[in-house]
Please model this.
Amino acid sequence: MDPKEILKLEYTALNIRRNILRLIRAGESGHVGGALSSVEIVTALYFNLLNIDPGNPKWPQRDRFVLSAGHKCLVLYAALAERGFFDKSVLDTYGALDSRIPGHPNMHKLPGVETNTGALGHGLSIAGGMAIGLRLDRSPAKVYVLMGDGELAEGSNWEAASAAAMHKLDNLVVFVDRNRLQISGPTLEVMSYEPLDERWRSFGWRVRIIDGHDLELIISTVNETPFEKGKPSVIIADTIKSKGLSFAEGKVSYHYWKANPGEMEQAEHDLNNIEKQLKAKMERFGL
Amino acid sequence: MINELKDPRKIFGEAVIEASETNPNIVVLSADSSSGSGLGDFKKKFPDRHFEFGIMEQGVTGIACGLATTGKIPVFAAIAPFVTARNFEMFRNDLGYMNQNVKVVGRCAGLTYDQLGSTHHSIDDVAIIRTIPGVTIINPGDPVTIKKAVHAMIDHVGPCYMKIGSPKMPVLYEEEVDFNLGKGIVIKDGHDVTLIGTGTVLSKAVAAAKLLEDEGISVRLIDIHTIKPLDRELILSAARETGRIVTVEEHFTTGGLGSAVAEICSQECPVQMKMIGIGDYYASNGPYEELLGKYGLQPDLIKETVIKFIKNK
Model:
């Protein structure tokens, strides 16, 4: 990929992180850890991979994005606003009565939201149904799903995983945001589903493991899907929970962040530092 | 022909096939359940529109939601408790909250899986699905209205739950009967008491009404085939004009038709009510007709309950 394009996407990822902070500022708290760990995945999807039209969000031929881990909604709202599905001022209503952006997404309230998720273990089945429906219509559209690694303990996911393989849904691409933490602690200690790659493979999927913060790698990997014709694809994305916030990265206590003013100041400082690094990169490219 | 016995699952399956001839969006989803739901012929006739998933009712409910987002009309029929209780959260979130055009059909509902015991009885399905905003609940009481209900359900845009039994059931209506979702049918007018029946035991209420007439009691007999949305006006006028209501259902008296009627009457036109159904216990097992008798759902027992109810007032 053109390094300038990658740099542009890195800037977009930064803006999405800034939008997430804006949401937290409005709502005073939120599920920040898993939102920040999946910023690069969502950026790659909404700014490179998804065939979508913000002006026509219900366009039947669009690619679908199902946020199975609905508590990561901050990153979805941040990306949809950045992509122009709605005005960014909506982000300032997070936490308010009757806000269009609840703590778990509601498709009836906001354009661009495909599903009402929040209860875990629902998204993969829904996405499977979408993939079958699109195939019946001979549509070239693909269905993308973002799941958390803690979420994989819900048994319904494995019903859906079996069904997707049995019905040869090679228009279905799943990201597992493997940040290795859930509310109570490390996934390895709470309820391990490792080795994830072997587990998915044994269910009939084709698997890749990548660095989930490497935008270029995310895009090139998705562009190789289906990894095998007639098989659904899963990308296990190794990530860092709360990525971008120095004081919160990799810490289980920031699954849900109730921001105090000092932390908020530090968070802004951290994102400004990322911007400085990106500017230095730009200069190196002579932009 | 009136009183002719017909297989409800066969009638259901034939109606789905009939609707699918003209509506290409209908697809059928099976959780190892199509053949037992009268949909074996659908699979033969429309192999590309029939999807088998094996025994995974939670998964199939979500898959149905996803299919509906692409404009398909999924019909998902299986043993009633497994498409209402087991998958409740998927029903509520994926079909109800997302307002998807999916038709869930619980068959062998009520006590019709007589011998198989409480795991297979479905006497709470109306109670639990009734809590989901926007879901239409249909419980037709004879073969003619089962067929009409299938077409009405397909034509209605939105999530539906329909329940049917399994033993052969008598035809109660002429083919020309007017069937509209949300509108009850007054089978017979009367002024002493209103008897409201639904689903598999509607025929028992019909027979009980005749026995009561023989005793000189004037019965208004109503078929509530759509439990949600309930025909509010019809129920309130019956309450006002007869002053007494008895409900008859093969369901817990908690949360079912009786509760739904009481919710309206208690607030808008309080009247004496009696609910005939299953109390707060697990139903027993045994031959179907004997089980119905155990819970007071045979015509002579309904008659006795109504007479006692009227005398005690």
The beta strands of chain A are 29-30, 64-67, 143-148, 172-178, 181-182, 185-186, 206-211, 233-238, 257-258. The domain at 3-284 of chain A is CATH 3.40.50.970 (Rossmann fold).
